[in-house]
Amino acid sequence: MYAVIKIGGKQYRVEEGQKLLVDRQPHAAGDAFMPDVLMTGGDEVVTDRSKLEGAVSVQVVEHLRGEKIRVFKFKPKRGYRKARGHRSELTRISVESIGGSSRPKRAPARKADPEKAEARPADEKPKAQPKAAAKPRAAAKPKAAAAEKPAAKPRRTRAKKEDAADGA
Model confidence over 63-83: pLDDT tens digits? Predict the structure, then answer.
């Protein structure tokens, strides 16, 4: 079962036993409180506000500060440089219960059937099927002899101008 809760103007999808970091809350460490519940889901989805009142209970685990964030502003060729930064004030919370029920017990782990384990010993690995043989490539065609091609024409060059001083 899950729920969507609203804490500090943000919405979080939570499940029972989940721990998450939210913005600093005004409750002391170890205190329990009921956040705003927007919906619960699971077998059936409930969105009616009157039924959701107090459906989720969370407990404050600790208060802490987030990682330092540095903000640096720079404008080239002007000598403008600003260094700012901050550390967020956070609260770690733990979701105790959803829908008024305490944490559900997990189903016992499934055990492997002994019949299936005996059917295939661990020493034997399934044999890989052989790959299909690669197709032979077509033989390369012989290149045409250079003699068959017509000879290249000589490049035309400009006729040199005669001296205009010779008289014309």
Answer: 999 999 999 999 999 999 999
**Ramachandran area for residue 146 (φ above 0: left; ψ -120 to 50: alpha; else beta):** alpha
- On whether the CB atoms of residues 91 and 24 are closer than 8 A, the answer is yes
| 92 has a pLDDT exceeding 70 | yes
Global pTM? 0.55
Angle made by CA atoms 132, 136, 140, in degrees to the nearest 5: 160
**Any domain includes 43:** yes
Contact 95, 18 (CB under 8 A): yes
Domain, as residue range, for 37: 2-64+92-98
Start-end of H helices in the chain: 49-52, 114-119
Q: How many domains does the chain have?
A: 1
Alpha-carbon Rg for the chain, nearest whole angstrom, is: 40
User: Residue 164 corresponds to which tokens in the numbers above?
Assistant: 């205009």
* C-alpha triplet 38, 9, 83: angle, nearest 5°: 155
Q: Could you tell me if residue 146 is inside a domain?
A: no
Domain-located, residue 128 = no
